[in-house]
Fold this protein.
Amino acid sequence: MAAVTHPSAAPTHEITQTHAEVTRDVVRTLETASRGYVILLLSAVALFLVGLTTFGVLVKDGLGHAGYNPPVFWSVYITTFVFWVGIGHAGTLISAILFLFRSPWRTAVYRSTEAMTVFAVMTAGLFPIIHIGRQWIFYWLLPYPNQRFLWPNFKSPLIWDVFAISTYLTVSTTFLCFGLVPDIAAVRDKVTGWRKTVYGLTSVGWRGTDNQWRHYSRAYLYLAALATPLVLSVHSVVSWDFAVSIVPGWHGTIFAPYFVAGAIYSGIGMVLTLIIPLRRALRVEHMITEYHFDNLAKLTLLTGSILFYAYMMEYFVAWYSGSTFEQTTFYRRAFGPMWWAGWTMIICNAFVSQLLWFRKIRVNLTALFTISIFINIGMWFERYVIIVSSLSNDYMPWAWSQLNPTWADWGILIGSFGWFGMWFLLFAKNFPIVAIQEIKEMIPMPRKRGGHH
Amino acid sequence: MRTLAIVLGAVCAGGLVAVLVLGGSRSAAQTTKPVADSVRAAVITDTTSLSGPRQPIFFRHDIHAGQFKIPCQYCHYSVAVSSEPGIPSIQTCMGCHLAIAGSDSSAKTEIKKVRQAWSEKKPVEWVRVHYLARHAHFPHMRHIKVMGPNACATCHGDVSRMPQVFRVNNVNHMGFCISCHVERKVSRDCSVCHY
Amino acid sequence: MPDEAPSTIDRRKFLTVLGATGGGALALSGCSTDKVERLVPYLVQSEDQVPGVATWYASSCTECSTGCGVHVRTREGRAVKLEGNPEHPVNKGKLCSRGQAALQGLYNPGRIKGPMVRNPDGTFKLVTWDDAIGRLAAKVTGGKVAVISGAGAGTFSDLLAEWTTALGGRLVRWEPFGHEPFRAANKRVFGVDKLPAHDFAKARYIVSFGSDFLDTGLASIENQRGFAQSHGFAGGDVAKMVYAGPRMDLTGLNADEWLAIAPGTETALALAMASVVAGERGGAGALASVLAAHTPAAAAKETGIPAERIERIAREFAAAQPSLAVAGGIGAQHAGATELCAAVNILNYVAGNVGQTVDFAADLGSGDGYAALGELAAAIDGGQVGVLLVHDANPVYALPRTSRFADKLKKVPFKVSTSMFLDETSALCDLLLPHHHALERWDDSAPRAGVRGLMQPVMEPVFDTMAAGDVLLKVSQKAGGALARFNAPSYQAHLRAKWDALGAAQGEKDAEGFWHSALQRGGVFQAAAQAAPAAIALAADAGARYAAPAFEGQGDFVLAPYPHSLLYDGRGANKPWLLENADPVTKITWHSWVEISPETAASLDVRDGEILRIVSAHGSIEAPAYVYMGLHPGVVAVPLGLGHTAYGAFAEGRGVNALDLLGAPAGDFVSYLSTRVTLEKTGKYRKLASIAGVPRQLGRGIAEAMPLAAAKKGLTVKEAYLEEGHGEHELNTEREVVALKGWSEAQHQATKFGNYAGDHPQWGMSIDLSRCTGCQACVTACYAENNIPTVGEAEILRGRELTWMRIERYWEGGEKPGEPVSARFVPMLCQHCANAPCEPVCPVYAAYHTPDGLNGQVYNRCVGTRYCANNCPYKVRYFNWYKYNLMAWPSPLNLQLNPDVTVRARGVMEKCTFCIQRIRGAQNQARLEDRPVRDGEFTTACAQACPSDAIVFGDVNDPESRVVAAKRNARGYHVLEETNVRPAVTYLAKVLHSVEG
């Protein structure tokens, strides 16, 4: 795959293995599960069941079990929805955009991040259904001919949302599956028995012929090009869920870029949280190296700083607008009843990310992991603050009230993590979590550098 | 934008609904064949073959409305003034059936039931045929006002030819209302019916 | 909407229950057509009922002794709404919350299902009416009969009186918050043993000595109407209103000036004012010398109000002609009450108001007073009572526990109750003969001279009950003897006979005609003959006396128990509407509270919701604190009406009864303001079930007001601000509005096609904040009209009440100590914005704009994303978090539902619809008659109910309509105008009478 061979590539990160070793190492990750893995998987499933039960109760009795407290009509569910959509973005960024930019360091991590994208979006996709009052007719949000002569309101950002998310899910899934084909083939050639048949089918007759490679790399390039705009579009649309409203604290023109940056920031946070333990668990330290984390960290620093700027800008705009409503909202965001949430968001996102100016921290996995946890928390709270604190004090002082979340809120939140974790773990065990082919392309070849096989 | 959406909806779903409606009326044609254009209502021996729910009393619209040409509003007294058509009270039935005992045996037995209900002071519990969801408000009187006293058939089918009333159109399908409103260029505003 | 299925009723289920009176009806319902539904026809079609068309009956309200006239809306043989009778001289078509809630008494699940007798084990068992009446007949002949009844006057109470005398028994007509002090004082000062009627419309200056004449006082609806005339900037001017009392009640919150006097010192203030006024105008006659002793300086010592302030108000009072001073409320409920009423009489006399704004011709009815009840209690102790009949009274609950009335009751061998509910008193009785509800029986009321209200059954009885009148007659027939002369075949016949006599007395030839016109009009109404001012002279021994108030017991605080605005003396505590509808002053629902002043709160370090123990010499209660700025520091106030031990599931075990703190009553009346208490912190806390968020406007110009001077000049709100040198905001930064106009214009071009082409009416509303008193009659009307579920305390704690119409109460001032505090009321409902933010964000067009300018909400299309509610700046959209439709109306309450309005299922958004069902109804009718809808032909439920006519509704496209006229008013403004949502509701700024002069 010519795409990734890059002059600057070779020196920065030598892969010292032979093709055979690479394949062996990766395939090893697919062998029978360790006890640790099984425990992880089971706990993920358990969490998912918690969420499922909660959802059941919500459908039975109504949303009242959740802590909604008007005027806060959206709370934990939408927060978590945005959180998961955001997570997805890092994946696409790394696998598609960095691919187009010929950035070689993506190779080792992109497969896992891409998987993360798909499962994150799968998770997010559930929330529009979970949070509505009459879940059983969620399909009314889709445009389809019906005897009522009715169509959805294409003016509504919630409809844009439906399209954005479904598109994103389709494209990223295709992209993932497509990228998998050669690797599955490689696995197929190593394993035996029924697994061989399964991989045989899923590798859709890949033989790695020049001809196949030629079409493959072209198609891969186009898919990457197709996926790239989504990184920007999807979360812009999600941000418009809020930006087009007139709620003080939502009604901001900077929301699209602000959200996209936040999305990538949170995404990479999640990538780090996942990869750092994973590479040890799967014993692929030599493939996902310090070099990769350094780069990921730099990206985090960049997006984190953009967020920092966005936060400051929000306050500036609030002050500059001269609108008493905006000003009150932002004052209360920092010093109101929800000050703690507001500061959690600022510290975890704006401040913590600044630590990454230091290379020592960027390459210290323990530090990185800790920071990544902060990022996850911070980004969840960012959405929580934007949604809940803005709603709890908008135009009518008489209606102001505070949210008090309940077990139903946490149940769904936990469940979403279980659902995500379940799929990710299953994937990691059954498909090469490290892209075999592209790693091989990293291996310096005496005869000819990279190029087609 | 909104208008556009509605128009689009009309165009696409139009076909679908047309099929629905046609299908409905076709089944109607078949079941009413036995009494096709005969002034005198047929004698019906086998009631099991009749479509529509079986009523506690085998009340024959085809005899009352068809053969004897009793206007609908004689019994459904409030249809022209109220949103409710009005279910005739047993008293109304007795108005005639004190005198009329029925010609043939089957009629006699059915009319006995009415008189019994009257004497026992137990109203007959008819099985509802046409049902409209409770979040839709249908002002019968306005439709009668505009389309005349015999407009009933538009939605209820030609009841005067039905030995036993059955559902010709599903009046609970919004599409059924809309298609007519579109055709006649009258309001399609939701809040006309939904409030 | 599947959830709707089992319990919700609308016209369809009504159709299925048409035959309920003729035979058993069952109603399976649901949205899907495959369920089998039965149609049960009438056996005999009643002439006056057309299915789907409402039938109205005129009747009279019996919820209090005011005796307002009502119109009852019935559908398919069920009463579904109560409205005022426009022809009735007292309430002129309006009805208060308590009156409207009578409907929930009719369908109350707590009603006694039929006649019952007490088993030895204290439980009750149902018996037949024959049996029950036989038992009573057997006892009454034994003599030693006593009867306790309510104060309501009329044919029944006359019959009861005759019946009792025939048995040689004694009748006591008693109800709480009696008016004995007034009668006594009027007798002493003017020699008339009557209650006065006050003409607030005429008054140019009003001083209330603790009287809550706008809310819990007698004839509050009538007073509100008058008050709106004089104080509502109606004639281009505003009469000043001063409220003197230890606690600001709703009337106080409507005053221009509050004198926070020490409890029980109203008399000193009144006399001081009288002496000043007499000095100004003379005419005190013999009293002049007596009055001279009561100087403002002396009063200042007592009341804590500076002498010069008293003097100022007195002079203003004297200068304004005619003025009006009223006593009442908590002011007239302490030992010195009679003195206060006398003093106020004198004040009115010297100010020349008697015969002007104070008139005794009406002779408002009232009961016998506590003295009689005391004597009865003594008689019981003396074993002189063998049979006690309790009718329309609940003394066991309404008397302080220290009166030990329950124990006395137990001593009576045979106790009978006609109560509709198993309340505290009837629970102790041996025989229960449940009365018909006022809407189920023939009866009448004689609330005042010249007014005779008629009642007729508007529907079949819900339960196996019997009118008390018939019980008396049947018992008489069974017992014979002295009772033999009560031989009318039925109470209806008895009533008819009385009315024929009445007709004859009024010179009516045609008795039949008289009766029928009375039935149609709801009674016969004649203006009471105005007594000439001269007729009422100041008695020589009027006696202007003031004794410093004495309160029993120890403690730093005087306890002020006051009648709850909605539950009143507790009779409302079993009606969910009244429990859920917030108290207009504190905005607390469903539970008791204790009001403490900010000073007290500071000294005790107590915050809202901290549970305090209030201890008196006679007992103690625990209630959460509510820190109230409108309270004298020396006082703690507790609303009455809760803390029931019986009286149905809604009332039992809810809140506390402050009467437990009072000493045994003595003398002519129960003295509520009589006890000192101490406050103890319990360390416990509960969140107050209040519907108030932040009760301050934060300079957002929600409840605008302007000075009288500016209003007289016809300035707009903005101009008024600039004149006061405010400059910027409050109103708004014009720039935003201008910037957005263009865009919203474009928006509206889009709504010119399809349905929107052609000209439609544009429904609009105007609300005059100068007239609104915050009484919340509109809120109850909205609940009744629109099938709004009551969600209960737990949900209100989560802020989930569904008050389509809510009255926001914003505080002004009172932030720094000593700064005067006042309140502004804003009725807040869906503004039906022409440029509504909720519409574009709805993904399914459930929220959309109708061609006739409404902000439509299609329940059955709503999927419940709730984005509309987030985007609504007024926060007037409400969500069905649970299946409220299955929880709010336990059978038979569900029979009250308005069949014209869809009952909302869980998971959908709902909000004010401008009573679209009334709009469509009027349009349908107009269409049948081939004519356009006339202005004023119909109006919304809130506008219909508003006692002060603050709300006007109509078609803005009709230049002749009243609403257009109202909207043209210079005081008009839109709440949150800067959001440029173009509301269809215009508010008219409140006009403030400056405190000085």
The two ends of chain B are 24 Å apart (CA to CA).
